[in-house]
Design goal:
The complex is a heterodimer. By secondary structure, chain A is of the alpha+beta class. Chain A contains six helices and ten strands. The relative contact order of chain A is 0.22. By secondary structure, chain B is α/β, with parallel strands linked by helices. The chains are: A alpha+beta, B alpha/beta.
């Protein structure tokens, strides 16, 4: 089986917002809404650290990381369970998705999602330019929407937009059930966390913290599984302890 | 980020730190995606358009360090999205949040549509006081606009001389059009603009090595992964300058390189560093002298390099302080050669020669007492031991030693020096200092050496086309000289300005009010631009320029990567916009120089390309990019272009400023000095960081960015804020003796107490009151002659209670304001 997941190397992430904006562009996300937010893990505001500035020549305690956060595509997705009309469902490849024709806008899923990953179109969605952007149709007023791992691209053998557009090579998408995939290698070989693991949601988005990974240089926008080995010169092997 | 996005943010954060392409017959650059959807509805009930777009390969072209080749996707006659396109050398595939957002910029309401004339301007009655925020414009035809401009240029030429017309070129469009602008200026005899921004550090570096204009050359970014120590000095390279190439620095770090960041601000880059040195503003020269001190003390200098490629062994006369010349004493060699001691005997020092030259010591040659240059440097550094400068610089002595030790002992590395250092008045001294530091550690000419915070990239070599050798061009003025010329006629009168690719005079230049006063002396101000900027609002004649995607060009990879790119047209120019080249050629025809300009832009590009043997027009056109193989990846492998052919550690022909002479890098500060006369009245230093959301003042209008970064803010340490009774998110008045601005305070622990910041590039319309460049000044140092944007003092207080902040606080249910720009352009 295919089971798509995402690895985000926070040691590589530079908080540049390219993933947040290219997500909006590709997915025709309305103004005022974000499917993918680059949160600052530090101070209370964007791009501010926690801790204190060095005083009297000491090293201080400042610390800052970026945590890009979108739908975690949970294996045990609470949003799927609470949807009264089965609009939110899990695809065979593990992507959690919404059938917008079925969504009745009750927003139970928003309450159930611990990641604040979903947004609701209270108003008539507004797009700039008005005609919309990207490669997927806009959602109407009155529905909940969220990250789809760019399922419209994945279905055509392409990586999600946020992955293709990351200038830090910090986002790696692939099949967690394929042990030779880069995502599998990194999950196995690097220290990774998942958000709010104690909630039992079993997310399929993994965050690397501590030792930096080589990332995944993107010279093609195709899914890793679509590339033959010769076409992936930039894809590094796992750093150590890999089973290949 | 808007408030709605902040909801629940804390809950989400981890606890405790935990084309392939099908040719379509129109050339290789025009593609459709190979794997195509059929527009069928997905299970989401939505239509997918994957594979339905017409894709054109082109290039993003601001004055940033990207020049990124990109694909522009068009569907139903409209641009739908941007993606990076792998260039010929695909390791340079990248783009940033700005290049990816042209989808919004192209159609923004600030786009200029038609040629216009200020309603109350005429050639004979210019009514200069009618310029400014209240000015009204009327639509005119292109012919009318060009006739007006050409006639006025001719009449000014006959009355005051051609040099009374200034051709001002900014950096807002990185193609070849500027060459045609310079060509017309040269033929007409107009005054031409010369750069007065970011030239400071390079001047100091150049004095020592013979290399460097803005910043010195550095190895291309593909080589940065070979560095073992990267000292980023005064630059947030992961937010600006290098963000699109971040992977290359990260790869070096992942390979085990030590990343050191020297910055008063805990930046994104600092947050990734192994060691952060929180230097106080303006104290950088003290700090690097202390690092030299460590290298001397620990004897970790590169003796082979110092002997073979520098003047470290060159003798300095004790009596005059000048270098001993072969002609001064009975040493074989050319008259002007410097002298070293080899095996106890004086010898003339040749370039690139390895000898067992004495690096230290006192020697008497023919009765002349001397010491070696390196001895002079060591004695100078002796006054700046880490412990001695720790308090002054704010940097722990052990950390200074660690940084120096890493650079000197861990193999190849370098200092990614920045433009920010040159934004302090005497920033050229740092350029001199770090050129010497890297000579001590032998970090020139090797893989893994770094000398600037952006790589060199490449340019199109077009010879004398821009300044034809058969004409005598007019004089030039550097930017900071404009106001004196316009107001006082010093060094000569300027009565008209033709400006392209620039929002400088209305927005980006320091001491903005003085430039506005200067403009009042003009009889004609012609501004060509893509958007209705603050500079355009000052104009008499407005020439609307198409978006980059609507005008073809050859884009240099200067400061970026070793490719040239062909900027293919994605769509026809919207409305009545016209390529600057067409306007320039139209003027040239009217001024009698029409035969000197090819009929079309394409022909001009072809002619320019034919002058550069390293590229081929057809290949470049078809491929969209061509790597220029003549661009070396590793720099400084040849003899240095100095008098001695070596890096000149001791400069006996040094300039001086304010009584300080720069034979060796001697610290000199302007407003950062602790005892500066304005230190009590204006106690805070004020900088204007480059953010990831704008390139200079470009992209200000991008709605997606404005959702994340909605308005100008003042980054201020909470302690500085609280001492002034300023709450977080409260509007504050920032002021000094030149002007003021009102912006929102942002408590930010990343900022050193005593230092405040507003990111640059906001337009006047974005400020509640005033403008950040109403606070900056236009004074330059004698040597640097470079605008010192960061060498500025301010005071801060809560904004007056009656200040109207409704533009950000009302009618804005989504908390962003991004979707509905509060003031429109044309």
């Amino acid at each position: 089986m295919t089971n798509y997941g995402l690895v985000i190397d926070q040691e590589r992430c530079i908080g540049c917002q390219a993933c947040a904006v290219s997500c909006k562009q590709e997915n025709n996300v309305p103004m005022g809404q974000f499917w993918n937010r680059v949160l600052t893990e530090g101070g209370d505001k964007l791009d501010t650290p926690a801790g204190g500035y060095p005083e009297d020549g000491d090293d201080g305690t400042l610390d800052m990381h970026y945590q890009p956060t979108a739908c975690q595509h949970c294996e045990n997705a609470p949003c799927v369970k609470v949807c009264p009309v089965n609009a939110t469902y899990t695809r065979d490849d593990g992507i959690v998705e919404i059938d917008y024709d079925k969504c009745i806008g009750c927003r139970y899923c928003m309450a159930a999602c611990p990641y604040n990953a979903r947004v609701f179109n209270w108003d008539e969605p507004e797009h700039v330019p008005e005609e919309g952007t990207g490669d997927v149709e806009a959602r109407p007023q009155g529905v909940v929407e969220k990250c789809t791992f760019c399922s419209h691209r994945v279905d055509e053998g392409l990586d999600p937009a946020c992955v293709v557009n990351c200038p830090a090579d910090a986002r790696i998408f692939g099949d967690l059930d394929e042990e030779t995939s880069t995502v599998s290698k990194y999950v196995n070989n690097y220290e990774t966390d998942r958000l709010l693991e104690d909630r039992g949601t079993d997310p399929k988005t993994y965050y690397i913290r501590g030792e930096m990974s080589p990332g995944r240089p993107q010279t093609s926008d195709k899914l890793e599984s679509e590339l033959d080995d010769d076409a992936m010169p930039g894809v590094p092997a796992a750093k150590s302890g890999g089973d290949d | 980020m808007g408030d709605s996005e902040d909801v629940g943010r804390r809950d989400v954060l981890k606890a405790g730190g935990a084309a392939a392409a099908l040719g379509l017959g129109g050339g290789g650059y025009l593609n459709a995606l190979a794997s195509g959807g059929d527009g069928a509805s997905t299970a989401t009930g939505l239509e997918s358009f994957v594979g339905q777009n017409e894709v054109t390969q082109t290039v993003c072209s601001p004055n940033c360090r990207g020049k990124c080749p990109i694909d522009v996707h068009v569907r139903d006659g409209q641009i739908k999205k941007i993606e990076p396109h792998p260039p010929e050398d695909e390791q340079y595939k990248r783009a940033c949040v700005l290049g990816l957002s042209h989808t919004q910029r192209v159609y923004d309401p600030t786009r200029l549509k038609y040629p216009m004339k200020r309603a109350d301007w005429s050639p004979d009655e210019p009514n200069p006081t009618g310029r400014g925020p209240e000015a009204e414009f009327e639509r005119i035809s292109w012919d009318e606009a060009l006739d007006l401009v050409a006639d006025k240029m001719q009449s000014l030429k006959s009355e005051y001389g051609a040099e009374s017309v200034l051709f001002h070129e900014g950096s807002g469009n990185y193609g070849q059009t500027g060459k045609s602008f310079k060509r017309l200026a040269s033929l007409f005899g107009a005054t031409q603009s010369a750069w007065g921004i970011d030239t400071n550090v390079g001047k100091g570096f150049n004095r020592i090595t013979g290399h460097g204009a803005f910043l010195p050359p550095t190895n291309e970014s593909e080589d940065w992964e070979n560095a073992n120590t990267i000292i980023v000095w005064g630059s947030d390279i992961f937010s600006s300058q290098f963000q699109m190439d971040a992977s290359k620095v990260l790869d070096a770090v992942e390979n085990g390189a030590k990343l050191v960041v020297v910055d008063p601000v805990y930046t994104t880059t600092a947050s990734k560093a192994d060691l952060w040195l929180p230097v106080k503003p303006g104290k950088d020269v003290y700090l690097i002298l202390a690092m030299m001190h460590t290298v001397f003390e620990e004897e970790t200098y590169d003796t082979d390099f110092l002997r073979s490629r520098t003047t470290a062994p060159a003798l300095v006369r004790t009596d005059t302080g000048e270098l001993l010349r072969a002609a001064d004493v009975s040493v074989d060699g050319r008259d002007d050669q410097v002298v070293a001691i080899e095996d106890g005997e004086p010898v003339a020092l040749e370039p690139e020669t390895e000898g067992d030259y004495a690096l230290f010591g006192e020697y008497t040659v023919d009765g002349v007492e001397c010491v070696t240059s390196l001895t002079k440097l060591r004695d100078h550094a002796a006054d700046h031991a880490p412990a001695a400068v720790a308090e002054k610089t704010g940097v722990d002595a052990d950390n200074i030693r660690t940084a120096a030790r890493w650079l000197a002992t861990r193999g190849p590395g370098g200092i990614a020096s920045s433009y920010a250092l040159g934004r302090y008045t005497h920033g050229h001294i740092f350029g001199q200092a770090y050129a010497i530091m890297l000579a001590m550690t032998g970090d020139y000419g090797n893989h893994g050496n770094i000398h600037a915070h952006h790589p060199g990239g490449t340019t199109l070599a077009a010879g004398d086309w821009a300044a034809p050798s058969d004409v005598d061009p007019g004089p030039s003025l550097i930017f900071p000289e404009y106001p004196d010329a316009m107001i006082d006629g010093d060094p000569h009168e300027i009565r008209a300005v033709y400006s392209i690719e620039s929002n400088m005079m209305g927005n980006q230049f320091p001491d903005r009010q003085r430039y506005q006063n200067a403009i009042e002396n003009l009889e004609m101000y012609v501004v060509a631009d893509m958007h209705h900027t603050d500079t355009v609002q000052q104009a008499d004649i407005v020439l609307p320029v198409p978006h980059w995607f609507e005008q073809e060009d050859i884009i240099s990879g200067w400061g970026s990567h070793p490719h040239l790119g062909y900027r293919h047209r994605v769509q026809e120019p919207l409305w009545e916009t016209r390529d600057d080249y067409e306007a320039i050629r139209g003027l040239a025809e009217r001024l009698g120089f029409g035969d000197r300009f090819p009929e079309t832009k394409r022909e001009m590009l072809r002619e320019l390309a034919s002058r550069d043997d390293a590229i081929d027009f057809e290949t470049l056109y078809e491929q969209g990019t061509q790597r220029k193989e003549t661009t070396p990846v590793v720099k400084y492998t040849d003899e240095f272009p100095t008098e001695t052919g070596r890096i000149e550690l001791y400069d006996d022909d040094a300039p001086s400023e304010e009584g300080v002479s720069f034979e060796l890098p001697r610290p000199l500060e302007d407003r950062t000095a602790d005892d500066h006369e304005q230190a009590d009245e204006y106690p805070l230093m004020f900088m204007q960081k480059h953010s990831r959301f704008r390139i200079h003042s470009q992209y200000e209008m991008v709605n997606w960015s404005r959702e994340i970064n909605p308005e100008p803010q003042l980054d201020i340490h909470p302690r500085d804020a609280k001492a002034r009774g300023i709450e977080d998110d409260e509007y504050v008045r920032v002021y000094n003796d030149r002007g003021e601005m009102v912006v929102k305070a942002k408590y930010n622990e990343a900022f050193q107490p005593g230092l405040v910041n507003t990111d640059q590039g906001w337009w006047a319309r974005d400020f509640v009151e005033g403008h950040l460049n109403d606070l900056t000044h236009n004074e330059t140092s004698d040597v640097g002659r470079c605008m010192a944007f960061y060498d500025v003092r301010v005071a801060v207080e809560p904004a007056p209670e009656d200040v109207d902040t409704s533009m950000y606080t009302e009618g804005n249910p989504k908390g962003s304001g991004a979707a509905t720009p509060h003031t429109g352009g044309d």
